[in-house]
Amino acid sequence: MAVDTMLPPNEQERLLAQYLEIAALAGGLAHEIKNPLSTINLNLELLAEEVSGGDSPRDRRMLKKILSVQRECRRLEVILEDFLKFARAGELELTECDLNQVVREFLESYQTEAESNGIEISPHLAPDLPAVRLDEALFRQVLLNLALNAQQAMPRGGLLELQTRSRGGRVELDVIDNGCGMDEQTLSRVFDAFYSTKKTGSGLGLATVKRIVDAHGGQVTVESAPSRGTRFTVSLPPAESPDGH
Prior knowledge:
Helix Hairpins; 2 domains; five-stranded mixed sheet; 18% strand; globular; disordered N terminus
């Protein structure tokens, strides 16, 4: 968790302890919900098997209702998984690393998904970037969430650009798509937890991005307009800076 360094040390410690307690409670609650949800899913599968062979109108009605409940259970599972990621986003294990290499490794893993959705990836990675201190697993989640957000904005395919640079004493990453873009109302709430303009999803993807970037002492901003695409910019302190953890 990024704590305001202008606060007195005892206040920083109090806020950090409070955050960790809330995160632990939230994660524990999500795990407690997952267990009975798994039991419900298993029993729904058994019920679906029992009625799927029937030809009567009653059997068909029952199967339709069971499948509907199964879809809602799967949606709850997605929300819970996203919420667990959100709750854990401030728990960092930092190592000094090359942001370009982290981006390259992510793109290798995402390439197949991009191709299957008609998305062309165009990386422009600046040489000789200062090192940054990252929790690599969590930062890969940032990259994945931003890529998936771009993918959803380009349902018929498009161009996804990733650019890195050093500017103003910071290390920056742009994730740019040429998709549908966002209006001002959406932009004003894009990082709000549980806010989404999509029919599916938890509304936690971009909120998790902001939470992880904030915890690294960084900032994330967004520029967008309808039909003109979207640019997310992640700004991080270099490893040798005072706020580079």
